[in-house]
Amino acid sequence: MNSNLKVFLAIFCFIWGIVGVVLAAVNLQAEPAGTTSAIAFAAVGMVGFVAGWLLMRRPRY
Q: Transmembrane segments in this chain: where (predicted)?
């Protein structure tokens, strides 16, 4: 995979993770709290963080 594409996708995944965590926090602070949607957004955000981290790792040879 092209290294520039890999970096672009990793940055996209990190931004995706940040948006998921922010949306989870906003849903938890709403009245009444949207706990189910907050958990869903947090899970999607964590998937984004993990995907970005996996894309940024250096290969082990």
A: 7-26, 38-56
How does 30-47 read in b/e, with b if 16+ C-beta sit within 10 Å? Answer: eeeebeeebeebbebbee
CA 17 – CA 33 distance, rounded (Å):
21
Euclidean distance between the first and final Cα of the chain, in Å?
16
Q: Model's pTM, two decimal places?
A: 0.81
CA 51, CA 3: separation in Å to the nearest integer? Answer: 15
CB count within 10 Å of CB 53 equals: 13
Top-confidence residue, 33 or 21? 21
Residue ranges covered by each domain of the chain: 3-56
